[in-house]
Design brief:
mainly alpha, 2 domains, two-stranded antiparallel sheet, 55% helix
Length: 97
């Protein structure tokens, strides 16, 4: 579990840095005040750069499951049901018809 957390943190840092770099390249390639050669080189780097992009998967903060992830609470379906049964989520109660 600790290895998975460490690996996920490293991946997030890498993607954040690469995202900044890609935004800079994109702005350079679309800036018409720069020379054509500079814009062309920026667009070439951007096309080669997009192939190496990593994808971040959202995971549950309690169990690190990645399937059936609830974005609002940042937990998986199983962890959400467990917390709801223990009444740990404020304002949530079972609806009985």
């Amino acid at each position: 579990m600790k290895k998975l957390v460490r690996k996920d943190n490293q991946k997030r840092k890498k993607v954040f840095k690469l995202e900044k770099f890609s935004k800079i390249l994109k702005s350079l390639s679309k800036n018409y005040y720069l020379t054509k050669n500079l814009r062309w080189n920026a667009s070439l780097q951007l096309t080669s750069f997009t192939r190496n992009k990593s994808v971040i998967t959202n995971r549950c903060i309690l169990t690190f499951r990645k399937s059936v992830f609830r974005q609002l609470y940042s937990v998986s379906r199983l962890a959400f049901l467990r917390l709801a049964r223990k009444k740990k989520i404020y304002g949530l109660k079972k609806n009985i018809w």
